Amino acid sequence: MSNILCVQWTITPRTAPQPWLTCSRCGGPRGYRSSGKIRVNANGTRIDAWLIYRCTVCDSSWNRPVVERREVSAIDPDVLLSLQVNEPALVQRLAFDVAALKRWTDHVQKFDDVVVDKRVLSEKPRCVQSLEIECRVPRQIGLRADRLLASELQLSRSCLQRLEKAARIHAVPPGVNLRRSLRDSTRLIIDASSLPDGSIDRAAGTSCVDGPA
């Protein structure tokens, strides 16, 4: 039996990225948060749509263009309906589209508050010698790989530094910087013998937080 434990972590951000724009009311650059609301304006055969943002300081609004002067007939009917009814999945997809936000500003703030869903991909060996974590990141996040490991495996900063210095943490593809935002399909391979007690169970999502009732 292999002594490798393979797990998959799906990492989903809780907070949508915030573009930084010059707020006319505040008089300087401010972060803007998505309100979760879409405004649609139809004028004859053409349509405009905006995702509404709010200044995090004064609550003034910014309408981020989503559809600009498009012929109604050129828009997929399902997309048009989603815009009109403020469909949550569409709003979320738009709010997390960092590339689109960068059309309006170079400064898009991403956050590291995430939900981590853990799934074991291989049968857990009796003696785990190597831990392989496959990271699924469906949306861009600001969380660094080293901070993710510290949080989810309950590792101290000094422990992580020792593991890195001893080359007991490897990333695939090679060259991935653990101090940069995590990317989809990154695999983190860790020498399990170097991990504190309980880290393997935490990696697999099987640790018991609360004692028996």
Question: Features of this protein?
Answer:
2 domains, alpha+beta, five-stranded mixed beta sheet, five-stranded antiparallel beta sheet, 213 residues, 6 helices, elongated
The major beta sheet can be summarized as:
5 strands, mixed
Strand order of the largest sheet: 7-1-8-10-9
Which secondary-structure class do the elements indicate?
Answer: alpha+beta
- How many domains, in number, for the residues? 2
User: How confident overall, as mean pLDDT?
Assistant: 91
> Ends: how far apart?
36 Å
Please report which band the strand proportion falls in: under 5%, 5-15%, 15-25%, 25-35%, 35-45% or over 45%: 35-45%
Integer-rounded radius of gyration: 22 Å
- What is the H/E order? EEEEEHHHEEEHHEEH
Total count of helical runs of at least 4 residues: 6
Shape assignment: elongated
Give the total of beta strands: 10
Low-confidence stretches: 208-213
Estimated helix fraction: 10-25%
Describe this structure in words.
This protein has 213 residues and is of the alpha+beta class. It contains 6 helices and 10 strands; from the N terminus they run E-E-E-E-E-H-H-H-E-E-E-H-H-E-E-H. The protein has a 5-stranded mixed sheet. A hairpin with a 5-residue loop joins strand 4 and strand 5. The radius of gyration is 22 Å and the shape is elongated.
